[in-house]
# Entry
Amino acid sequence: MDEENTLLGRVVAAPGGYAPEVLQAIDRQSGRRLLGLEDKPLPFHGADQWTVFELAWLDISGRPQVGIAEIDIPCASPCTVESKSLKFYFHGLNNHRFASLEVLEETIKTDISGVCQSPIGLQIDTIDDYARKGLGSMAGISLDTQDVDLVGMASQASPQADRLSVDMGSEIVTETLHSHLFRSNCPVTGQPDWASLQLSYRGQALRRESLLQYLLSYREHRGFHEQCVEQIFLDVLEHCRPQALTVAARFTRRGGIDINPWRSTHATPGVLPERQGRQ
# Structure
């Protein structure tokens, strides 16, 4: 399904009961075609971690239960799930009885895996267990106080990858940088999407002001969360030539769900950012 035919931006009645048929798939190839990745091996590893805060169901006796679900969708899956349809799917579980937590977990995994055409990861926590995980801070050095030239930035509708640069001739460094200023926009509704973004790399030193300029050039860009992270990864890889690279973003929630993609040159990327205070 392409983005024009999704539930986003449309007034649609939520299902009254368990309704796996409301789940809509989004073909990843449609976005990757714009990045020049169509029919090519992926140059990255990664996953999209979805956090569902409004998970509720009934136990076998009819007693309401609540929890928080974390869903991991591999970036190599042919499809991902459309966010509003996922919200509706979880709404449909509210008054459905499940014999056990294990049955609920298996049902969710089966339904979402079917839409994504790939196995997914799933963890359901109680509210108290999830609260004990706490909040984290972005690792590394903040870019947000860099003195950058913002002339013309507000009028840019496309990311400006040519702003990226490195200190030519510098020694190879290993460092982590982050920014809380990232903003992009939903390609369907135009609503802003805010994120904290962390970039870890090994290579010639990135010019930090150039990286911040580049990230700020997304402010009027329209793209899904996953597509933005993939474009950032590819642009830094092409223009800065790092030996190793990991890009991870934690987006603020919408409709009771947040999406946190990461892409890396390594299947085990090291420390990924934890939940941020504004999530």
